[in-house]
Structure formats: structure tokens, C-alpha cells
Design a protein that fits this description.
Elements lengths: L5 E3 L5 E4 L6 E9 L1 E2 L6 E9 L7 E5 L5 E8 L2 E11 L3 E2 L4 E8 L11 E3 L5 E4 L7 E6 H4 L1 E3 L5 E7 L2 E7 L6 E13 L2 E14 L14 E6 L4
Antiparallel strand pairs: 1-2, 3-10, 4-5, 5-8, 6-10, 7-8, 8-9, 11-12, 13-19, 14-18, 15-19, 16-17, 17-18
Amino acid sequence: MSTGFQVIGASGAWQADESFASLALRQKGSTTFTAAGSYNRSAIAGINVGAGPWETPILAVRSDFPTLVLGMWLNGSQWNYTVVAPNNPQEGQNAGKSLDWWLFDRPADLGSTNGLVVRDAAGRVTFDAYQKYLRVRGIQTKSVNNVVDYGNGTLAHASTRVGMVTTVTQVTPGGQYTQLIGFAGAKVTGSTVSIGDWGGHQFVGVLPPDGPFPNVQDGQFLIVDVTNY
């Protein structure tokens, strides 16, 4: 932009702009995993973030065991996230464990009458100095930088690309196959974020005519600093 209000940090990144909303902390909480029937080697947790309205929501989660935000879905007027984690003897029993979560989106209009508030041409808040904002520490991809020590801070991760792999083993010649669908999940230990795979769902059956399905790209995660959030 050539005119108007804009704040740029030392790194050159935009921090506040009258045309684009900075993503602010809108909700936070914790949830507990239960054994999942459809993902028979995983545990599953649901996070209800309400009706919003949400514009560009980003959900960051934190746990000391691998987790993956698998998707967001609408139930009536209520938006929900599904998070999965390993739940089998080989890769860890995590049903009953909990994780913390933080939801970021366009800043809420709190009606602030002092401090710095920036609005766009439509009157919507793009920045409010009283709110807390998304702080990105890095991006990790399983095959590139699967383990990174950030040195400090309380860290969480947001799924930006769901990595899935499929392993197919023939059980009987020309007949049944075992197919194992694996997820890429991230975990936080101190200031270190690690990405790894686990077998999330296993079934035995006759492959469809177009199976087995090809693997998708590596799992990728946005690393977020939630210190004092």
C-alpha cells in the first residue's frame, strides 16, 4: 500500500494494516481424547468453537504426543474440529489424555475506546492493541525439518497440509489385502517440535479397482508461539 496505516516489524513482516486483518486469539481451551471406532488405531478428540462467524480461522494445538488436526466441519450452526492421535500398543495409548488448543481469527470488535484500534474501509477491526495475535516461529515439513529446537517459548502447531501414507500388503493371492493408512502428527517436548507418522487406520478387504490410493505429500505444520496466551 502507498497510503494509509501500516506497521512493519524489524523482519519486514506486516504487523498491522488497515486493509488486512491480523489474526487474533479468539478462543482457547483443552479437550480429551477417546478411542476412535472409525480410526481403529487412533484416538479422536472434538473441539467445538461455536457459530462464529469465522473468517480465516487457524487452530493451533499442543501435546507431548503426536496429534493432527484432521479437519473442520459444520454441525448445524456449530463449527467443530477433529483431532486424531495414536492409540495402539505399538505407537502409544493416548485415549484419556488431553491437549490444549488456541483458535485465531479476525480480531473481535470489543468496542475499545482507548488504545490503538485499526479499521478497514468497511469499519471492521483489523487490529486492536488490547488483543493477542498469532506469532509464527516457523514451518516444519516431515521430510525436510521434522525435528526443530526453537530454544524457548510455549509452542503449539497448526496443520497446514495433512500428510497421509498408505501401505498395502497382499493377504491372499488375487484376493484380500491389508491396507494401513498413516497420519503425520506433531508433538511438543519443551521447546522442540517433532513430526512423525503413525498407522491411523487399518482394514482388510478387496481393494477397489482404482486402489491402492497414492500417497499424498508430507505433513506440514505452522509452529506458533503461545507463551502467556
